[in-house]
From TrEMBL:
Pfam families cross-referenced by the UniProt entry: MMR_HSR1, YchF-GTPase_C
UniProt GO molecular function: ATP binding; ATP hydrolysis activity; GTP binding; metal ion binding; ribosomal large subunit binding
Chain ranges of the OBG-type G domain: 3-257
SUPFAM superfamilies: P-loop containing nucleoside triphosphate hydrolases (SSF52540), TGS-like (SSF81271)
Matching InterPro entries: ATPase_YchF/OLA1 (IPR004396), Beta-grasp_dom_sf (IPR012675), G_OBG (IPR031167), GTP-bd (IPR006073), P-loop_NTPase (IPR027417), TGS (IPR004095), TGS-like (IPR012676), TGS-like_dom_sf (IPR023192)
Cellular component, GO, one term: cytoplasm
HAMAP family: YchF_OLA1_ATPase
Protein name: Ribosome-binding ATPase YchF
Keywords in alphabetical order: ATP-binding, Magnesium, Metal-binding, Nucleotide-binding
Encoding gene per record: ychF
């Protein structure tokens, strides 16, 4: 299941620096707007200590972690919704992502020019919000116009859809994102087809200097206050620190560097975990001598749906799943030991997969 997150933000907030250390891809990180003309795509390996434990026990030929695709999208300016700067390209790229990582500048540095002349993360956030809302408003109004003829004929589904679109238009016109509109289950499907940008889940990433990376600063507090009603995540990270960590060769060097800063882990790890939480994702494993592998699924997926992530044939021809809980596998040390101890469950089509399940699927094509 390919997960794609888009990194957005005004020019010079630290997006490309963050992208570089996330993916080890080398986007041009320069001190002027639009240094990232084309969206750069990088793939991040999702860190998971459970894979290391399984590798020790199974000793497979290879280990395959799950990944997240990160898209570094060109810097946005006022007027992007009307095509200013790289607006149209930016908005097309962001529409294709599952979640938005919105980087806001929360540090002072006279050597790094701010596109609006001063550091004000709440203003910066609102500039991007407004541009995205205006683009969504354009989309919704266009669809609303297209429904008018059907509404006049008394088409019940068209009337219902038009009422929903009117609610979304009202929210967008009042400066609120489409995600703030409460939806019934059947309305969610209608909204999904519209591909609105402001329905996507958002993680606000406060890019701070080294002295603020542990405790935050006044700018971080301003962001938290501004987004408290948005049902969004806020994370503090030092993009330059992450870049420095990425340059270190060994795990021991990275650990020592983090300890000196008073950090338990790299911000990248926290970022990936938070993205998972934001999108209601979890991981299950397959473990054999050929390979130990992590798979990403949505919370609440059943065993056949989880099997379908490996291959659609697995879902179509699903017979049953043999399931071992991760803690049982690690405690007992092998699949055979789990079987002997009665710790291997045989589950059918209704089984809901739990995070960390080790699964073997039986299927018939």
């Amino acid at each position: 299941m390919a997960l794609k997150c888009g990194i957005v933000g005004l020019p010079n907030v630290g997006k490309s620096t963050l992208f570089n250390c996330l993916s080890n891809a080398k986007a041009q990180s320069a001190n002027f707007p639009f240094c990232t003309i084309e969206p750069n795509v990088g793939v991040i390996t999702v860190p998971d200590n459970r894979l290391e434990e399984l590798e020790k026990l199974v000793k497979p030929e290879r280990v395959l972690p799950t990944t997240i695709e990160i898209v570094d999208i060109a810097g946005l300016v006022k007027g992007a919704s009307k095509g200013e700067g790289l607006g149209n390209k930016f908005l097309a790229n962001i529409r294709e992502t599952d979640a938005i990582i919105h980087v806001v500048r929360c540090f002072d540095d006279g050597n790094v020019v701010h596109v609006d002349g001063s550091v004000n993360p709440v203003r910066d956030k609102e500039i991007i919000d407004i541009e995205l809302q205006l683009k969504d408003l354009e989309t919704v109004e266009k669809n609303f116009e297209g429904l008018k003829r059907k509404v006049k004929t008394g088409d019940k589904s068209a009337v219902k859809e038009a009422e929903l679109l009117e609610r979304i238009i009202k929210a967008l016109e009042s400066g609120k994102s489409a995600r703030t509109v409460e939806l019934a289950e059947d309305e969610k499907e209608i909204v999904k087809k519209l591909q609105l940008i402001t329905t996507k889940p958002v993680l606000y990433l406060c890019n701070v200097d080294e002295s603020s990376v542990v405790g935050g600063n006044k700018y971080v507090e301003q962001v938290k206050e501004a987004v408290k009603d948005e049902n969004a995540e806020v994370l503090v990270i030092g993009a330059q620190i992450e870049a420095d960590i990425a340059e270190l060769e060994t795990y021991e060097e990275r650990k020592e560097f983090l300890t000196d800063l008073g950090l338990e882990e790299a911000g990248v790890n926290k970022l990936i975990r938070t993205a998972y939480k934001l999108l209601n994702l979890q991981t299950y494993f397959t473990a054999g001598v050929k390979e130990v592998r992590a798979w990403t699924i949505k919370e609440g997926m059943t065993a056949p749906q989880a099997a379908g992530v490996i291959h659609t044939d697995f879902e179509k021809g699903f017979i049953r799943a043999e399931v071992i809980k991760y803690n049982d596998f690690v405690t007992l040390g092998s699949e055979a030991a789990c079987k002997d101890a009665g710790k291997m469950g045989v589950e059918g089509k209704e089984y809901v997969v739990s995070d960390g399940d080790i699964m073997h699927f039986r299927f018939n094509v």
